[in-house]
């Protein structure tokens, strides 16, 4: 394995960490409705627990209301029950062939809790990126130890690894800041 391979592997894993972080952020509730909020809710479908998106069409009616339209008529009650029993604090209203999920306005205290959660997720993403940096640096040191690369190559590669890491950390910080603004917006 060469230094270029190590760098490429590290960069792709860091990109995957960012994608996972973005996915986690999409599940954190803001004042506005977001269909991704219901991705974690499981509903029983013929003995299996599946995400709501596999048994219904989930979309937005307006900025504060999610609509869930089951593909089978008898799934409406099960979906409504699953949403109500989830830990999201939502109260769905069944309108026959459509379930309306209004987003209750968040209190100031709840918004602050959500920003703490956003920061915590951001810190976890940074830790993941830093762990990848450490693994890459260890792999580079192993190449030098095995005499497959020079110490000058090591210094250049470690500087480049640090530059890539700094770029991803800055991206995480920007995502955290944007999500915090979104959460605190009334």
UniProtKB/TrEMBL annotation:
Residues forming coiled coils: 133-167
InterPro entries noted in UniProt: Ribosome_recyc_fac, Ribosome_recyc_fac_dom, RRF_sf
An example Gene Ontology biological process: cytoplasmic translational termination
Domain of life: Bacteria
Example of a GO cellular component annotation carried by this entry: cytosol
Domain called Ribosome recycling factor: residue spans: 21-184
SUPFAM superfamilies referenced in this protein's UniProt entry, alphabetically: Ribosome recycling factor, RRF
This protein's record includes keyword Cytoplasm: yes
UniProt entry keywords in alphabetical sequence: Coiled coil, Cytoplasm, Protein biosynthesis
Reported function: Responsible for the release of ribosomes from messenger RNA at the termination of protein biosynthesis. May increase the efficiency of translation by recycling ribosomes from one round of translation to another.
Descriptive protein name: Ribosome-recycling factor
């Amino acid at each position: 394995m060469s230094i270029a391979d190590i760098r490429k592997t590290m960069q792709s894993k860091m990109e995957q960490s960012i994608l996972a972080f973005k996915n986690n952020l999409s599940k954190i509730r803001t004042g506005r409705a977001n269909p991704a909020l219901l991705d974690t809710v499981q509903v029983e479908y013929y003995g299996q627990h599946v995400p709501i998106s596999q048994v219904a069409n989930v979309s937005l009616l307006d900025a504060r209301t999610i609509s869930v339209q089951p593909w089978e008529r008898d799934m409406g009650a099960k979906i409504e029950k699953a949403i109500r029993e989830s830990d999201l604090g939502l109260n769905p209203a069944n309108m026959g062939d459509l379930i309306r999920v209004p987003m209750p306005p968040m209190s100031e205290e709840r918004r602050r809790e959500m920003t703490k959660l956003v920061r915590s997720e951001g810190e976890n993403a940074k830790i993941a990126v830093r762990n990848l940096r450490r693994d890459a640096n260890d792999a580079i040191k192993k190449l030098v130890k095995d005499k497959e690369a020079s110490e000058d190559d090591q210094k250049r590669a470690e500087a480049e690894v640090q530059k890539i890491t700094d770029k991803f950390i800055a991206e995480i910080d920007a995502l955290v800041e944007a999500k915090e603004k979104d959460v605190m917006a009334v």
